[in-house]
Each structure stands twice: as structure tokens, then as C-alpha cells.
Design goal:
single chain, 17% strand
Amino acid sequence: MDGANPLALSKESCVYTKCYCEENIWKICNHIEETSSQLIDNCFAVFISNTKKVDYHVILIYQSTDKTLIYDLDSTLPFPCPFEEYSRLALRSEDFIVSDFHRLFRVIPGRLYLSTFASDRSHMKNEDTTWKAAPPSYTCISTNESSMNLDDFIDMNRKDWHGEVLSLSELTHRFTAGS
């Protein structure tokens, strides 16, 4: 196992479809569970949004006893990127962001994300049913209970949904080395 990249992933080896970050991270979690199942318990899918649901992004956090790494397929930062570096360069301070738009982070254990996330991709269709962005070539991700629950993961007001909703300072405290 590579100490700098314990999941042994490169951007090039990951399934990636532009504008489908939630599915890209699901695919990474699925790959980890299939190839290194013991490591999935160190992985967290993290939805980044706000109470207004203006936009969202999804990243993967890997946390071991000695390091925390971010896997973000849409970032130009290193892949993986140490949490502290990602926090400083990508998440940054919210000092100059209107409080209504402060980011919140829904942190979902990787195994739970795999068993609960579903998307029929309807959020990516225009009113005339054309695609806003070309969809992935594989079939939609679904569970026995749902074919579409993406909005539940994005909704940071929904505290009764999977995972835990954290502020930026809470996320930083939870995933910073030595915390």
C-alpha cells in the first residue's frame, strides 16, 4: 500500500463523468469495497452545499490514524490531497461569504453511501428532456428502496437523513490530524 495514496487510486484510473460528482464518488467507494474492502470503513462521501441548496459538490475523504486525504476528481489540486492543504486552498475561509451561503458538509460513511444513494439522473434533464450534461454510460445507481434520493443528501436542513451535517469548522476539527 502506498503511504501517500493508501487507496492506490489515480485520477486516470477512476470512473469519471463531468457534472456527476455524486456518482463519481459512489463509483470510487464501490471500487474500494470491491478491491480493498477493509479500507471502505476509512472512507466518507462528503456532500458540500448550503441551506439554500444553491449548488453542491461531492468529495471523498479517507481518514486513517495518521492522515486524512481528499479525493476530488474535479479539483486541480493533487490527487489525493492532504486534508490541511485542500482545506486551505479549496475550502478556504468563509469570512467573506454571506452567512446564508456558508457551506455545510454532509459526511456519510462510505459503506452507508454505497447502500443508500440513488440517482435516476432526472436532475440533469432540461424541461424538454435533453441532457444538461451527457450522462454516464453505466446504468443509474439505485437501491431496493429508491431510484432517486439525491436531493435528500444535498438538503443540509434535513438532519434526519444519512450521515452527519457539519459546519466548515466542525469538518476541519473532525478531520485535522491530531484532533
